[in-house]
Amino acid sequence: MALHHARAIARNGELAQLVAVADPIPAASAAIRQVWPRLRVFPSLEELLAAERVDVVHVCTPPHTHATLAGQALEARCHVYVEKPFAESTAEAERVLALAARHGLQVCAGHQCLFEYPAVRAQALLPYLGELVHVESFFAFAPAAGHPTGRAPLAPDRQLLDVLPHPVYLLEHFLRLADPHSPMHVAALEIGPRGTVHTFVRCGRLTGTLVMTLEGRPVQHHLRLVGSRGVVQCDFVLGNVQRLIGPGTSSLDKVLAPFRLARQTAGGAAAALAGRLVRRQRGY
Questions:
Q1: The whole model's pTM is what?
Q2: Is 36 left (phi over 0), alpha (psi -120 to 50) or beta?
Q3: Which domains does the chain have, with CATH numbers?
Q4: The predicted structure's pLDDT at residue 147
């Protein structure tokens, strides 16, 4: 994950500069040096902060270390970007946020899907859906068979902890856009031993479902917004959005609907692929 962050910073060279990397694992440090031979690499964040002047620290380490490392960076008066999951407990998250507020610093969680085209476009289309009544968040993820540094693959429960935040924060975000005040509670929850989660959520009059699977194929990441006047579906793998606005009850609507969806899917996928090629952005 750190390599993805480093490459993203490098692509934005006019706005940011990659200063240094801290990693206690020699194989990981070597992988970084293969890409950036002149980059300074330190065995710990403490040593990096003592030797370099940095503005923002990206924390891309195992979840149980996030709160401690974010705290070190904030104490050094650095803004912090923390990969998901932000912390392993509410108490840890609150301590990090309180420390940032005390020093007047910014903390950002790695909830990047909120800022990708599908989510941004879906949010812009919300007024056309009428009253939002239901949100569905689905993620089928394929764990990596190995790791570039030789590290063993994550166990299903740890892999689930690593990727589950994506469908969770998308579901919560759009439910909260429609109803920012009602309490949100989990009405039903089932967690399987091989990396599956099924959840039913209520937020006032709204309902939401979340399905996460490490076994289902192909890899898919969808968000579906159902309103009183239409539906929007986001595809975060293809990078596009399909929408059907209107009651859809007439014979003509039923005939045209699949063609409208096909046109939107093909056009959106082509545009998303072209954008990735222009930005030299790799999928992962």
A1: 0.88
A2: beta
A3: 2-110 (3.40.50.720), 113-279 (3.30.360.10)
A4: 58
